């Protein structure tokens, strides 16, 4: 995770698949929400006092009544980009559920850690990436990808005016999206992304006299893009402005860290980055975006991170744990027996959209993950998942340990070994490649196997990481590493995630 020392901090400030950041400031506190796609619970929310150190405090959509993602929802469907704002003493969040029967919805709370309200649906308002902003008269404006806009009543969901286009960025550019509307000084500013969320991604801004325009584009657009560059951070876009503790301005935005040869493969998903902003002639100018950045001009406020090892001794799961599409109460338990995470199989493998799975985002380019699993009454194990058609699994059951590689239409069992007696420690090491470069260089390698009582590692398979990348699989997500049950009942005593152990 990010931190700062010796005058600098590291980007990303929130590592792993936490894209489409939206941030708001309330007094000395900052809150940030991200997309969650097909994972439940939805919309992770973070807290910070310094814009660099962030702690996840919950998930906005954490009840089945708030978020339905049916099994027919494809991977990279589900919940898209939210906007988080504070208005009139309450937090407001608007987002889009791109599942069948979904649509744009609004939830509110007085405490961003939750609970959040039941959703209010915005019937008749089309478009993803919704933004909300209030003017001085109390009107609420909703702007969506396109870039179109309407007045709404966020309390009732009623759309109060026709939806009209207000700006589209660069003429002919693809995917004008991610709008955010601000009143700063004498102008209303409308910031958007365009170019698609791949290598052509960019941030643009315009300003006007009113929330509905007319908008004048910044003459220096795009104000942020890394397209066509050799920068180690790529796909920069989908940004939100925020004022720092000292009155300076900052930009939170998504980017990726591709690795390996060409075209470069990013495996962690789109992550959240931070860059300084200055104002010149009434326009924001974004500073250089690097992996190591100059520290802000205020004191750091570090936050406690959850332990790397989860012994499942608590009354509930930490909010970092996610499941695929749903987590029915009948499929899992922390009390059967106490101190173990018990999973009951629904789908038969990670290939199935309703698999029983509990995982966390991979947040480091090199890491080691271990679980102690008892599969005496079933079959399951540890998986590195991108989607149903792209995952690597180390699985135990029926007296055997198996390494499985699902790559598109292929699903070979790569290697097997006899399972040791009793609970088994399954392990995955994700290893960064050697520094030498070639056009076909992989972004990383994954070693799947069994750890013995003495700590020795029996590697069953060593697999190329590019096949668990967005550039191969497609979509908008990154890797999630977790535990699953494929048959019967499988119990996990602990899960341990260690970053860069080598």
TrEMBL record:
Superkingdom in the source lineage: Bacteria
GO-annotated molecular function: hydrolase activity
Keywords, comma-separated and alphabetical: Glycosidase, Hydrolase
One Pfam family here: GH43_C2
InterPro entries, alphabetized: ConA-like_dom_sf (IPR013320), GH43_C2 (IPR041542), Glyco_hydro_43 (IPR006710), Glyco_hydro_beta-prop_sf (IPR023296), Glycosyl_Hydrlase_43 (IPR051795)
Annotated CDD domains: GH43_XynB-like
Keyword Zinc: no
Record-linked Gene3D superfamilies: 2.60.120.200, Glycosyl hydrolase domain, family 43
Domain Beta-xylosidase C-terminal Concanavalin A-like: 309-497
Family that this chain belongs to: Belongs to the glycosyl hydrolase 43 family.
Name by which UniProt lists this protein: Glycoside hydrolase family 43 protein
Organism of derivation: Luedemannella helvata
């Amino acid at each position: 995770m990010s931190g700062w020392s010796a005058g600098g901090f590291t980007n990303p400030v929130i590592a792993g698949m936490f894209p489409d950041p939206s941030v708001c400031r309330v007094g000395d506190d900052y809150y940030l929400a991200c997309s969650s796609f097909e994972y439940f619970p939805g919309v992770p929310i973070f807290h910070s006092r310094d814009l660099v150190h962030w702690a996840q405090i919950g998930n906005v959509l954490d009840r089945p009544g708030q978020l339905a993602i049916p099994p027919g929802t494809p991977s990279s469907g589900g919940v898209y980009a939210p906007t988080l704002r504070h208005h009139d003493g309450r937090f407001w969040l608007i987002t889009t559920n791109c599942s069948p029967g979904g649509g744009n919805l609004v939830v509110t709370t007085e405490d961003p850690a939750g609970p959040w309200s039941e959703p209010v649906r915005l019937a008749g308002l089309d478009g993803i990436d919704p933004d909300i902003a209030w003017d001085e008269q109390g009107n609420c404006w909703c702007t969506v990808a396109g870039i179109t806009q309407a007045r709404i009543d966020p309390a009732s969901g009623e759309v109060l005016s026709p939806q009209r286009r207000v700006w589209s960025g660069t003429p002919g550019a693809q995917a004008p999206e991610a709008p955010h509307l601000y009143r700063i000084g004498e102008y209303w500013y409308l910031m958007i992304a365009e170019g698609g969320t791949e290598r052509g991604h960019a941030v643009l801004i315009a300003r006007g006299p009113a929330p509905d325009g007319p908008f004048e584009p910044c003459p220096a657009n795009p104000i942020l893009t890394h397209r066509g560059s050799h920068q180690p951070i790529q796909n920069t876009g989908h940004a939100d402005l925020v004022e720092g503790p000292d009155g300076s301005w900052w930009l939170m935005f998504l980017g990726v860290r591709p690795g390996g040869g060409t075209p470069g493969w990013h495996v962690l998903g789109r992550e959240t980055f931070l860059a300084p902003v200055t104002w010149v002639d009434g326009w924001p100018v974004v500073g250089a975006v690097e992996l190591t950045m100059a520290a802000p001009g205020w004191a750091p406020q570090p936050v406690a991170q959850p332990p790397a090892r989860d012994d499942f001794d608590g009354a509930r799961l930490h909010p970092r744990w996610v499941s695929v599409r749903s987590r029915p109460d009948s499929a899992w338990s922390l009390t059967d027996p106490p101190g173990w995470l018990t999973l009951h199989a629904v789908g038969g493998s990670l290939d199935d959209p309703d698999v029983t799975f509990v995982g966390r985002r991979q947040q480091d380019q090199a890491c080691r993950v271990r679980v102690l699993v008892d599969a005496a009454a079933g079959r399951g194990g540890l998986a590195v998942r991108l989607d149903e058609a792209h995952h690597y699994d180390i699985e135990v059951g029926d007296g055997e340990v198996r390494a499985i590689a699902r790559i598109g239409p292929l699903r070979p069992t790569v290697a097997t070994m006899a399972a040791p007696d009793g609970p088994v420690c399954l392990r995955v090491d994700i290893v960064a490649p050697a520094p030498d470069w070639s056009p076909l260089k992989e972004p990383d390698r994954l070693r799947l196997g069994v750890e013995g009582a003495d700590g020795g590692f029996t590697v069953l398979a060593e697999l190329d990481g590019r096949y668990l990348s967005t550039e191969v699989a497609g979509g908008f997500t990154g890797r999630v590493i977790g535990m699953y049950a494929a048959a019967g009942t499988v119990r996990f005593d602990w899960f341990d995630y260690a970053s860069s152990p080598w």
